From TrEMBL:
Binding positions for L-tyrosine per the UniProt entry: Y39, Y176, Q180
GO MF terms, alphabetically ordered: ligase activity
Top-level taxon in the UniProt lineage: Bacteria
Encoding gene (name): tyrS
InterPro entries associated with the record: aa-tRNA-synth_Ic (IPR002305), Rossmann-like_a/b/a_fold (IPR014729), S4_RNA-bd_sf (IPR036986), Tyr-tRNA-ligase (IPR002307), Tyr-tRNA-ligase_bac-type (IPR024088), Tyr-tRNA-ligase_bac_1 (IPR024107)
The protein's name: Tyrosine--tRNA ligase
Pfam family of the protein (one): tRNA-synt_1b
EC number: 6.1.1.1
Organism: Sphingomonas limnosediminicola
Length: 407
C-alpha cells in the first residue's frame, strides 16, 4: 500500500480502487490542500446502467466521502458516436430522443449514491452534448485535431484490438478518443475539473485529455485509473448467464439484485465488501476471515449492504427475509418475482413470463434437465398446465431462481 498524504488517495488506495495514476505526487499534494473536482463519463446506451458501472459510481462516492467534488458527465454527445473500447462491432446508433430518455432513466440512480447541490463538495451532473453538439467541424479540426497523430491513435487498444481482429472500425468511432479528450479540457474550463477517473482501459483516453489541456490551455490536470473488475472465475463484473444485472428496479427487482450479491464467490467477498459497501475496514477483515460455511454470513451482509445503498433499507431487509423463507424455511417469500395469471397457466408461459427463460425452447430444455420445480416438486412434462388457486404457486428454476404465480 502506498504512502499518500491526501485523504482522497488514501481512501482509494486502501479500498482497492487504484491501478495507475498520472503524476501521483502532484495529485496527492493538490488533493491534500484543496477540494478537487473530478469526473467520470457515462454513455447513455440504455435506460439503466448495470452493476458493471457500479465501480465507477462508487469511485465518485469515495471522492465525496473524502471531501472532494464529484462530476457525473452524461455522454449525450459521445453516445452519438459510441466508445469502441472492448467492442468487436459498432454500437447501434441512437436518436437524440432515445439518448435523452436513457439519461432520464440513469439519473435517478446517482441520486442514491451522491449528494447533489451547489456546495463546494456537492455533486453535479453535466451533459457533454451541451458543447459537443455545438462544435463546428473545421474549427474543431484546426484547434483540437492537429494535436492527434494517426500513428499514435492506431496504437490505442480500442483501435488496435478491433483492427487485429479484422473487425471494421468506422471513422465515427475513431473520433471517440478525440471527443473524450476534449471533454476533459472543456470540463476544466467550465467547472474547474482537475481529475478524470476511469477503468484501466481508459488510460490512453485520459492521458490524451491531460496532454490536450496542457498544450492548448497550459492547465495541469490528472488521471486515476482503476483495475477492471472481474469475478474470481474470470467473468466480467455485471454479466451473468441470465443477462445484465441492471441498477434500475423496473429492469431488475431488489430481490434479484440482493440475490446477485448473495451468490458472490467466497474468494470475492472481502474485495467486494471494500469496493461496494461503506462498512469499516476492520469489520470487513473480520467478515472475510470467517471460516468454512460461515462465509455465507459475510455474503448476506454484502447483499444487504449493497441493496440498501441502491434500493433502500426496507427493500434490502425484505429481500433478506424472502431469501431466508425461500431457502431455509422452504416457503414462498412475499417479495419473490410474481406473475399474475388466470385460473391456470402452462409451465412454459410461467417460465418465460417470470423471466427465468428467454424462450419456450430454453424452458423445454430446463424441464428436460430436471431443473424446474412447481411447489418444490420436480416436473418433467413440458406441456404441463399449472392450476393457480387462491394461494400462490411457487415456480423454481435451479437453486437460485424462484417466483410466484397468482390468479
Amino acid at each position: 500500500m502506498n504512502e499518500f498524504r491526501s485523504s482522497l488517495l488514501k481512501l482509494l488506495d486502501e479500498r482497492g480502487y487504484i491501478h495507475q495514476l498520472t503524476d501521483a505526487e502532484a495529485l496527492d499534494a493538490l488533493a491534500d490542500r484543496q477540494v478537487v473536482p473530478g469526473y467520470i463519463g457515462f454513455d447513455a446506451t440504455a435506460s439503466s446502467l448495470h452493476v458493471g458501472s457500479l465501480f465507477q459510481i462508487m469511485l465518485l462516492r469515495r471522492m465525496q466521502q473524502a471531501g472532494h467534488k464529484p462530476i457525473v458527465l452524461m455522454g449525450g454527445g459521445t453516445t452519438k458516436v459510441g466508445d469502441p473500447s472492448g467492442k468487436d462491432e459498432s454500437r447501434k446508433l441512437l436518436t437524440t430522443e432515445e439518448i435523452d430518455a436513457n439519461i432520464a432513466g440513469i439519473r435517478k440512480v446517482f441520486e442514491r449514491f451522491l449528494t447533489f447541490g451547489d456546495g463546494p463538495t456537492d455533486a453535479i451532473m453535466v451533459n457533454n452534448a451541451d458543447w459537443l453538439d455545438e462544435l463546428s467541424y473545421i474549427p474543431f479540426l484546426r484547434e483540437v485535431g492537429r494535436h492527434f497523430t494517426i500513428n499514435r491513435m492506431l496504437t490505442f487498444d480500442s483501435v488496435r484490438l478491433r483492427l487485429d481482429r479484422e473487425q471494421p472500425l468506422t471513422f465515427l468511432e475513431f473520433n471517440y478518443m478525440i471527443l473524450q479528450a476534449y471533454d476533459f479540457m472543456e470540463l476544466s474550463r467550465r467547472v474547474g475539473c482537475r481529475l478524470q477517473l476511469g477503468g484501466s482501459d481508459q488510460w490512453g483516453n485520459i492521458v490524451n485529455g491531460i496532454e490536450l489541456a496542457r498544450r492548448i490551455d497550459g492547465t495541469e490536470i490528472y488521471g486515476v485509473t482503476s483495475p477492471l473488475i472481474t469475478t474470481a472465475d474470470g467473468a466480467k463484473m455485471g454479466k451473468t448467464a441470465q443477462g445484465a444485472v441492471w441498477l434500475n428496479e423496473e429492469l431488475l427487482s431488489p430481490y434479484d439484485y440482493w440475490q446477485f450479491w448473495r451468490n458472490t464467490a467466497d474468494a470475492d467477498v472481502g474485495r467486494f465488501l471494500r469496493i461496494y459497501t461503506d462498512l469499516p475496514l476492520e469489520e470487513i477483515a473480520r467478515l472475510e476471515s470467517l471460516p468454512g460455511a460461515e462465509i455465507n454470513q459475510a455474503k448476506i451482509v454484502l447483499a444487504t449492504e449493497a441493496t440498501t445503498m441502491l434500493h433502500g433499507k426496507q427493500a434490502a431487509e425484505a429481500a433478506a427475509v424472502t431469501a431466508r423463507e425461500t431457502f431455509e424455511g422452504g416457503g414462498a417469500g412475499a417479495n419473490l418475482p410474481t406473475l399474475t395469471t388466470g385460473a391456470s397457466v402452462s409451465v412454459l408461459e410461467a417460465l418465460t413470463g417470470l423471466g427465468f427463460c428467454a424462450s419456450n425452447g430454453e424452458a423445454k430444455r430446463k424441464i428436460a434437465e430436471g431443473a424446474v420445480r412447481i411447489d418444490d416438486q420436480v416436473i418433467s412434462d413440458p406441456f404441463l398446465v399449472i392450476p393457480v388457486p387462491r394461494n400462490p404457486v411457487k415456480v423454481s428454476l435451479g437453486k437460485k431462481k424462484h417466483g410466484l404465480l397468482v390468479s
